[in-house]
């Protein structure tokens, strides 16, 4: 098993004894440290690699965000153009409808006047 943490157990044991611990207990603790699995601890090199990967990921996300913003702007412009075209078509349709209604109303008025005139001729004034 590879340890990422390197401890001088003799020096560690001597410091414990100097601090007032029994030599047998200090040696037992120092020996126990040898058996501790530190293989899963991250080293400075591991953290450096991770930091570089994260920076690259952030740069990639920023680049993708720029592309997405451009796509949104293109869709927005397209939608605005379509809305403008629909407004123009709707205005033209309304003008056409208005013209047809005016013609029909005019025709109805002419017809009503013709009927009124015919009735006036048929029924003499009294």
List its salient traits.
126 residues; mainly alpha; 3 helices; transmembrane; membrane; transmembrane helix
Short summary of the structure?
The chain contains three helices and no strands. It is mainly alpha-helical and 126 residues long.
Describe the structure.
- The protein has 126 residues and is mainly alpha-helical.
- Helix content is 81%, strand content 0%.
- The protein has a domain at 1-41.
- It contains 3 helices and no strands.
- Helix 1 (9-18) runs antiparallel to helix 2 (23-35).
- The longest helix is centred in the middle third of the chain and has 79 residues, at 44-122.
- 2% of the residues are buried.
- Keywords: Coiled coil, Membrane, Transmembrane, Transmembrane helix.
Query: What is the rounded distance between the termini?
Result: 129 Å
State which percent range the strand residues make up. under 5%
The count of strands amounts to 0
Topology as H/E string? HHH
Average predicted confidence as pLDDT: 91
Total of helices: 3
- Computed structural class: mainly alpha
Largest sheet: none
Label the overall shape.
rod-shaped
Write down the Rg.
47 Å
Helix % is: over 70%
Unreliable segments of 5+ consecutive residues: none
Organism: Paracoccus saliphilus
Keywords: Coiled coil, Membrane, Transmembrane, Transmembrane helix
Protein name: DUF1640 domain-containing protein
